[in-house]
Amino acid sequence: MIKTINNLVVKNRIFSVTIVAILLSLMMSSCKKDEPNDATIGKTTAVFNPGLKYSTMTDQDGNVYKTIVIGTQTWMAENLRTTKYRDGTSISNVIDNTAWINLNTGAYCNYNNTTNADTIATYGRLYNWYAATNSRNIAPEGWHLPTEAEWRTLIDYLGNNEVGGKMKETGTTHWLSPNTGATNESGFTALPSGIRSDFRELGKFFAMGKIGYYWSSTPLDTNYYLLPCLSNVDAMVSLTGFYNTDGLSVRLIKD
């Protein structure tokens, strides 16, 4: 009788330990779902300035970005890649070229419609004007799309004709040679993410490795907007205009 009771106690203990192990396994599995997953979020291969101190910010998708103080401003040091607005609403991912150029609502795409997570993490996504300036807000709380005046403040602070060089990532890992004048002394780490064009190429992608374009919130007219442009063949920043259905990169500035 005593032996039988002892056997029952042992069996109960084994059963209890097994249940606890299962519960712990389920809890750990549940927690992992909320953790960043490099397979989907990706890892940037951008070359940042090792001599500067960067901070971080997080977007609506949970992507974490480096940020940098330049003068009186705080900028993202990486290109935005969120797929959601601030309120959690999804931004449409439009792949088809014809559909892209006929849009009058917010949309994003990846250059050449890539699905490679590390490429997306490095170069960010391309957004049309309607997404960049949507009233739902593409920026997380405390951040916003820069105005022309805020871009000019950055340019004036960095000074002289070598401003683009001070903003560009160094080397030719991402910029095509010669990447003229690139020092990245500002820490801005501009990348040549290219463009998805409306007017010139009818929804096609071009200029990755050669040019980086960034939206501003300042219009020139009803469908044409002023924005900064950096190139691999000089160390300047030019302010130029693009259409609201072009796909361009986004850098946010802190409120």
Write a concise keyword list for the protein shown above.
single chain; 255 residues; alpha+beta; 2 domains; three-stranded antiparallel sheet; three-stranded mixed sheet; 7 helices; globular; disordered N terminus
Describe the model.
The chain is an alpha+beta fold and 255 residues long. It has two domains: 1-35; 40-254, no CATH class. The chain is 26% helix and 19% strand. It contains seven helices and 13 strands. The chain has helices spanning 2-32, 38-41, 97-101, 117-123, 129-132, 148-158, 163-167; strands spanning 55-58, 64-70, 73-76, 92-93, 107-109, 126-127, 143-144, 195-196, 205-206, 211-213, 224-231, 237-243, 253-254. The strands form five sheets. Strands 1-2-3 form a three-stranded antiparallel beta sheet. The longest helix is centred in the N-terminal third of the chain and has 31 residues, at 2-32. The termini are far apart. Residues 1-39 have low confidence and may be disordered.
Which stretches are poorly predicted, pLDDT < 50 over at least 5 residues?
Answer: 1-39
Major sheet: 3 strands, antiparallel
Structural class: alpha+beta
Report the span from N to C terminus: 76 Å
Tally of DSSP helical segments: 7
Number of strands: 13
Quaternary organization: single chain
Radius of gyration: 24 Å
The domain count comes to 2
Order of helices and strands: HHEEEEHEHEHEHHEEEEEE
| Mean pLDDT across every amino acid position | 85
Global geometry: globular
Proportion of helical residues: 25-40%
Quote the beta fraction: 15-25%
- Order of strands side by side in the largest beta sheet? 1-2-3
